[in-house]
Design brief:
14 strands; six-stranded parallel sheet; alpha/beta; binds 3-amino-D-alanine; Dihydrodipicolinate Reductase, domain 2
């Protein structure tokens, strides 16, 4: 059985790694928990073991087979020393996602890319993973010419602090107290903020460029027409995405529903007559990507609209990474 390290073990994604490894009975000999000096010494119970968090250093990866990096700056500092120690790094940060020497993998979409890794495998951005799981069956069925994505992203995408800020602002509003914004550029409670991460080229945000560039890399279609608008919404968990697709071949809604219904990692929730469609409040803490509101976009000849929801901490991060680790064991 492999020796596994979790880097960033005490953060939201790190904690989800522990939960997912246990839930999926991932075979682990030694599980080494690594974090910043501030968290070193903390004891964490896992599967009947009491694990002590160690400070991450370049020497933390001796005898480690798989190193799960939860994200953040530790990846740029420690991923390469981990590889030099003999570990395969599965990295949830954006550090290596667009590196041509590093596969960017969604197991339901491009599992074969794991085979050519050179020590590091990148986990895509959460909103990219959720969109790409839903796009793959449509891509296989009818080809994809153009994708327009509008996201509605939960505050937990900004970590525990994002959750705490929404809670505090909602409480302050109820009590008539002053509303303070630290994590987000504006009040998020009862508001929408069309900005996630910094603004970059063309006044697209870094989050929007991730959707564009990562989707092209995962599908191996460098000129796929993709555009995105990513928005922070006052929802605690799970990202929702409205996706408009122009296919290469005209297909019916029935064909699309059938393809999605058979697709790995997808659950179709689509019955307008019974008011059934995916909603973030009901998809959180699961690993599937939920698709509904499947309609023809009759404004163009080969158009489709779908509504997609997924838990961005599980399938959008921790579960996707553990599924990549499972591919390594095959
Ligand atoms: C967010 N996708 O939702 C980004 C990072 N997790 O904030």
């Amino acid at each position: 059985m492999p020796n596994v390290a979790i880097v960033g073990a005490t953060g939201a994604v790190g904690q989800e790694f522990l939960k997912i490894l246990a839930e999926r009975n991932f075979p682990v000999d030694e599980l080494r928990l690594l974090a910043t000096k501030r968290s070193a010494g903390k004891k964490i119970a896992w599967q009947g073991r009491e694990l002590e968090v160690q400070e991450t250093t370049p020497d933390s990866f001796k005898n480690i087979d798989i190193a799960l990096f939860a994200g953040g700056s530790s990846s740029t500092e420690f991923a390469k020393p981990a590889v030099e120690s003999g570990a395969v790094v599965i990295d949830n940060s954006s550090a290596f996602r667009l590196d041509p020497e590093v596969p960017l993998v969604v197991p339901e979409v491009n599992p074969e890319d794991v085979k050519w890794h050179k020590g590091i495998i990148a986990n895509p951005n959460c909103s990219t993973i959720i969109a790409n799981v839903a796009l793959k069956p449509i891509y296989d069925l009818a080809g994809i010419k153009r994708v327009v994505v509008s996201t509605y992203q939960a505050v937990s995408g900004a970590g525990r602090e994002g959750i705490e800020e929404l809670e505090a602002q909602a409480r302050a509003k109820a009590n008539g107290d002053e509303i303070i914004s630290k994590v987000f550029p504006y009040q998020i409670a009862f508001n929408l903020i069309p900005r996630i991460d910094i603004f970059q080229e063309g006044d697209y945000t870094k989050e929007e460029w991730k959707m564009v560039k990562e989707t092209r890399k995962i599908f191996h279609v460098p000129d796929m027409a993709v555009t995105a608008t990513t928005v922070r919404v006052p929802v605690f968990r799970s990202h929702s995405e409205s996706i408009n697709i122009e296919t290469e071949r005209k297909v019916t809604v029935a064909e699309v529903k059938e393809a999605l219904g058979k697709a790995p990692g997808v659950i179709v929730v689509d019955n307008p007559a019974k008011d059934q469609y995916p909603m973030p409040l009901y998809t959180s803490d699961t690993d599937e990507v939920y698709v509904g509101r499947i309609r023809e976009d009759f404004s163009i000849e080969k158009g489709l609209n779908i509504w997609v929801v997924g838990d961005q901490i599980r399938k959008g991060a921790a579960t996707n990474a553990v599924q990549i680790a499972e591919l390594l064991l095959k």
